[in-house]
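Work Package 3 (structural annotation) set out to generate three-dimensional models for the target panel prioritized at the project kickoff. During this period the team completed the workflow that converts sequence records into discrete structure tokens, so that structures can be stored uniformly alongside our sequence database. As a representative example, we reproduce one entry of 184 residues exactly as it appears in the project archive.
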Amino acid sequence: MKASEAEILIIPGYTNSGPDHWQSRWETKLSTARRVEQAEWSKPVREDWVAKVAEEVNAATLPVVLVAHSLGIPSAVHAIPLFRKQVVGAFFVAPPEVDNPAVRPRHLMSFGPYPRDPLPFPTVTIASRNDPFGSYEHADDIAAAWGSLLIDAGESGHINAESGHGPWPEGTMVFAQFLSRLKA
């Protein structure tokens, strides 16, 4: 599948993805990409975020590919039962441990726990060994439950602009390869 053959939904996490974040850069470069805009970026409410993801998927006119970062991941996964349009794949980056009481801010725990059923479409999960919001072991466990291909990003922090992943060419290459294997 080519990027032009799918609607690429960019699903940012807590506080949104700023202009230097790889998600924002991809949104600008990919003609069929659009961001899922949340009403409240700094005080996320699970039900609202999940409903907004489902609304955007269900408004699609092409097959959908999800590109979720951090808190966007549980938002997308919890929204799956509400999807009425075809999602052909999901690219998950830096899954937070939303069921860990040590995670801050605490209200992010309302997005946990993750569903553990196998996901109904192909997924890739990319996780860092030193992400302050989620351990690699947690990412490995949840990816295995979902049937997701886990990619070890090494010591890459939260894989965002703050950790030096603005352009993120390695991510672009992995995403392109992932897309090439999807079928509508």
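Residues 46-58 form the longest helix (13 residues).
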